[in-house]
Specification:
CATH class of the largest domain in chain B: Mainly Alpha
Shape of chain B: flat
Oligomer: heterodimer
Largest sheet of chain B: none
Order of helices and strands of chain B: HHHHHHHHHH
Number of strands of chain A: 10
Number of helices of chain A: 9
CATH topology of the largest domain in chain A: Rossmann fold
Distance between the termini of chain B: 8 Å
Helix content of chain A: 25-40%
Bound molecules: adenosine-5'-triphosphate, magnesium ion
Helix content of chain B: over 70%
Strand content of chain B: under 5%
Structural class of chain B: mainly alpha
Number of domains of chain A: 2
Radius of gyration of chain B: 26 Å
Shape of chain A: globular
CATH class of the largest domain in chain A: Alpha Beta
Largest interface: A-B, 39 and 39 residues
Number of helices of chain B: 10
Number of strands of chain B: 0
Radius of gyration of chain A: 19 Å
CATH topology of the largest domain in chain B: MetI-like fold
CATH architecture of the largest domain in chain A: 3-Layer(aba) Sandwich
Number of domains of chain B: 2
Largest sheet of chain A: 6 strands, mixed
CATH architecture of the largest domain in chain B: Orthogonal Bundle
Order of helices and strands of chain A: EEEHEEEHHHEHEHEEHHH
Chain lengths: 272, 291
């Protein structure tokens, strides 16, 4: 897939603005962001602040209203090379088997069947779906379905992995299992890639991120970027036992609760 | 739902014994579920048989008390049916109607699906012709029969056109709706993985629309049967429609019910056939595999 020299940022947004409905709705405005190659960036922010829209812009699924968005140094025009996405709603095709769903991205990008077989089987094994090749999505639990979504993206060997709240629809235990699996995967040198991971869970962001971007709403922009104090390799227990974990978590939570501008507090009568 | 297997990524080459055990559990679960489904199927069949006996029993006893030139009983109808099947009389009148049904329905399927897809894909075609379709679909087709007779005569050609007109609209409209109702999320998945337009249709849009198309076919079958009898009654009186008219006008009530019941059975049989096709081509719409 696309290879970019490691010093070109994977993604670069310069004064990027996206508006909907003839400008009536601002998803994000004048947003600046740089994601380095192989970096895991987690984005947290209130609902509706434009996180999904930002990810869709990077995936080339929607145009910017103004500003610039570069992937591997090139302006985004349609879905760029080397980018793969994992959806919150899984996005599996119900009429395709687990194997064919996993192979979908590769096949659509013209991979030959030998490559497809080798790569899809490898990732199905890796996420514990061996023996489910011929099952259909509706026969799987939510956690297993999202594993297929992960296989579909990973099998393409993307240099940028876009994850839009991939584990949000799962129960707490399954979510934790999948977080650990993803963490383990990202610690394999050959699997490491740039990843933009959107989440509402501060714990999840702290567990996975190299850096954490906090977005604010109306208009959506990056408010602050925190660098993770946890080094690599890491694991769930180690991260959660680290004294800085609670501290950072409290800080991010306070950031998400209190808008920077007090005038943006809504009067109490409006909130109910 | 099946349990999530507790295999983590650290252990890519899994423990074989555990894997085999898991496989065995899976087979066990599948067998148990299959047994439960079979039991339920038998129970349902039994309930239906009992119900059938009760209703036919009431008809038999009650029907026997009424004027036999206006009413008949199941036993008499069965006797008549055996006679009409053995003499070939039933088939003789059913065959030409079935042939018309076959012609008209086949053309309706091809034209209906193609037109539905074109309307859904090209907004120009939709804008230019969509309102004719709405208009014609709202017009009772029976009203067009005199015109068709003037244009195409009384025979097979006219009957085929009538059948086509009855069956065609639900297929077109459902195909169109099926395409329009494809989840935007799935389309976005296709686009995110860089599908070409052709691939998007083949892998996402058409399979997603398929259940709608099949529903359209089912509606069209029902309307097609109506069209078949209507064509028999309103053009050259022939086929199964003729059989009904002739037996009714001579007050042979037992014989008259034979083609009527045959039409009902035909409808049930064709829907069942369609359901089989649907399970074959769209297995993900099966609901009976869930507990
Ligand atoms: N296609 C669209 N048309 C119009 N408005 C849109 C569209 N997509 C998003 N929006 C609006 O843009 C804003 C940002 O939406 P977005 O989905 O990016 O938020 P989000 O941060 O992902 O929220 P959440 O955390 O709830 O997923 C919202 O106000 C939303 O209503
Ligand atoms: Mg979102």
């Amino acid at each position: 897939m696309a290879s970019a020299s490691s010093d070109t940022p994977a993604v670069q947004a310069i004064q990027a603005t996206k508006m909907f409905l003839d400008g009536a709705v601002i998803a994000y405005r004048n947003l600046n962001l740089e994601i380095r190659a192989q970096e895991i960036l987690c984005i947290v922010g209130p609902s509706g602040c434009g996180k999904t829209t930002l990810l869709r812009s990077i995936a080339g699924l929607t145009d910017l209203s103004s500003g610039q968005l570069l992937v591997h140094g090139k302006p985004v025009k349609g879905p760029p090379d080397g980018v793969a996405m994992v959806f919150q709603h899984f996005g599996l095709l119900p009429w395709k088997t687990v194997y064919d769903n996993g192979a979908f991205g590769l096949r659509m990008n013209g991979a030959d069947e030998a490559t497809v077989k080798e790569r899809v089987s490898r990732y199905l094994d890796l996420v514990g779906l061996r023996g489910f090749d011929k099952s259909f999505p509706h026969q799987l639990s939510g956690g297993m379905q999202q594993r297929v979504g992960l296989v579909r993206a990973l099998a393409m060997n993307p240099s940028i992995l876009l994850m839009d709240e991939p584990f949000a629809a799962l129960d707490a235990q399954t979510r934790e299992t999948l977080q650990e699996e993803l963490l383990a995967l990202m610690q394999r040198p050959e699997e490491r890639k740039a990843m933009v991971f959107i989440t509402h869970s501060i714990d999840e962001a702290l567990l996975l991120a190299d850096r954490i971007a906090i977005m604010t709403a109306r208009p959506g922009k990056i408010d602050e970027i925190l660098t993770s104090p946890f080094g690599w390799p890491r694991d769930l227990d180690g991260v959660q036992r680290n004294p800085q974990f609670a501290e950072m978590r409290a800080y991010i939570r306070s950031k998400l609760k209190a808008p920077t501008d007090p005038s943006k507090f809504k009067p109490a009568t409006e909130t109910a | 739902m099946m349990a999530v297997p507790a295999i983590d990524t650290g252990r890519s080459v899994g423990d074989n014994a555990a894997l085999a055990e898991e496989q065995a559990d899976r087979v066990k679960a599948a067998t148990a579920a299959e047994r439960k489904r079979t039991q339920r199927r038998w129970l349902k069949a039994l309930i239906r048989v009992v119900s059938l006996f009760v209703v036919l029993g009431i008809w038999e006893i009650g029907g026997g008390q009424l004027d036999q030139s206006l009413f008949s009983t199941p036993s008499k109808i069965i006797v008549a049916a055996v006679g009409m099947i053995a003499s070939g009389e039933l088939w003789q009148f059913l065959a030409p109607s079935l042939l018309v049904m076959f012609y008209g329905f086949s053309i309706a399927v091809v034209v209906g699906i193609v037109l539905g897809l074109l309307l859904a894909r090209y907004w120009v075609i939709d804008t230019a012709t969509g309102f004719y379709i709405t208009f014609l679909y709202s017009t009772p087709m029976v009203a067009l029969i005199p015109l068709i007779v003037i244009w195409a005569g009384f025979d097979t050609a006219a009957k085929t056109i009538i059948l086509f007109l009855f069956a065609f609209f639900p297929i077109t409209i459902n195909t169109y709706q099926g395409v329009k109702n494809v989840s935007p999320e799935l389309i976005e998945v296709g686009r995110a993985f860089r599908c070409s337009e052709a691939a998007l249709w083949r892998h996402v849009v058409l399979p997603a629309a398929l259940p709608f198309v099949v529903t359209g076919l089912r509606l069209a079958l029902g309307r097609g049967l109506i069209g078949m009898v209507t064509a028999d009654l309103y053009t050259a009186i022939s086929g199964i429609g003729y059989l009904i008219v002739r037996t009714a006008s001579t007050y042979q009530m037992d014989k008259m019910f034979v083609p009527i019941v045959t039409l009902g059975l035909l409808g049930v049989f064709l829907s069942w056939l369609l359901r089989l096709v649907e399970i074959k081509v769209a297995p993900w719409t099966r609901t009976d595999t869930r507990d």
